[in-house]
Design goal:
alpha+beta; 5-stranded parallel β-sheet; 8 helices; 19 strands; 26% helix
Length: 316
């Protein structure tokens, strides 16, 4: 087991999830993330005798439900870790597991470099940055985001609750991405334009002069100027219709240890001072859209206003 993966796996198991000797742990992985899955399994097995690893073929899209036996194992565990190629964060399986009292973390699209870099972080500082962001935006009825690339979008929060992804997953039902560091909400409404100039799949890290432009009206994405992203949303729409075009999430990165974008959505959306906006599913984060897709895009150099007042974004 490479030492660098071992250290990061121990951070996840011992610090983030605080696994104890009498607890059951399930590691869910796939054929492309097996090395990280095995590292997490080894770290869990060093703490508890009740550790299990399950592997299945990679899904084709983020948000695809895992096989039923995997979902059942997650729900019956005390803690789960899911390093998978495609995200399980917004699946019914993940939600049901947390509802059943399991605590866990998903690591969608994780690579060895992101695993070791993202988990080498000061989680107390991330927690403090999340608390500060929640204090600034938590009571706002409306949030506006602008950026030099051309973003100008306003979202209505309504009755939706801002959530924090701190990396501390210690109580029954707790959930986080790892690497962690964001506050986010599933808006009730949204109108305007957002322009991605950071990272977005299927492209990864965008070139310096490359942007992806999206028009939004009444909570739906109405125009996408990129063929590849449009194709992914259209594929999801074949099964769920217009729900695939939902403006699903607004998030603010709070990981003060991430100093630059690297092309991994999982890590880049956590970068302090960035904003990310997602299309598709948000049922797992307080929304009501159930869709087989959740596409995040990262904006560089945003300005964020809560009820008209500019907020102070964290910095790395």
């Amino acid at each position: 087991m490479p030492a660098d993966l071992t250290a990061a796996a121990e951070t996840a198991v011992e610090q983030c999830l605080n696994v104890e000797a009498d607890e059951s742990v399930v590691v869910v992985t796939d054929d492309r993330r097996e090395a990280i899955g095995e590292a997490l399994y080894a770290a869990a097995a060093a703490v508890t005798d009740d550790a299990t690893i399950l592997r299945y073929p990679p899904a084709e899209q983020h948000g695809t439900e895992p096989p039923a036996p995997v979902a059942a194992a997650m729900a019956e565990s005390d803690a789960f870790l899911a390093p998978t190629t495609k995200s399980l964060s917004h699946t019914r399986a993940r939600g049901a597991a947390c509802d059943a009292g399991a605590r866990g973390a998903t690591l969608p699209g994780i690579t060895a470099d992101v695993f070791t870099t993202g988990l080498d972080a000061d989680y107390a500082a991330i927690d403090a940055a999340c608390d500060d962001m929640l204090a600034q935006v938590g009571d706002a009825a409306e949030v506006r985001v602008t950026s030099p690339a051309g973003t100008d979008i306003t979202v209505g929060i309504g009755d939706r609750e801002w959530l924090a992804d701190t990396g501390s997953v210690r109580e029954p039902g707790d959930f986080s991405n790892l690497p962690a560091g964001e506050v986010f909400v599933a808006p009730e409404t949204a109108t305007g334009t957002f322009v991605i100039d950071g990272t977005m799949m299927p492209h990864g890290l965008l070139d310096e002069d490359q942007t992806l432009r999206f028009e939004v009206d009444d909570g739906r994405v109405t125009a996408i100027d990129d063929d590849a992203v449009r194709a992914e949303v259209e594929t999801a729409a074949e099964s769920v219709g217009d729900a695939a075009y939902t403006l699903a999430e607004l998030g603010i990165g709070t990981n003060v240890g991430v100093e630059e974008l690297v092309g991994s959505v999982l890590l880049d959306e956590k970068a302090a001072g960035t904003v990310h906006i997602a299309i598709g599913d948000n049922a797992g984060i307080g929304g009501d859209t159930d869709a087989p897709i959740h596409l995040d895009g990262i904006l560089r150099d945003p300005t964020v206003y809560a009820d008209g007042d500019e907020i102070d974004l964290p910095t790395a």
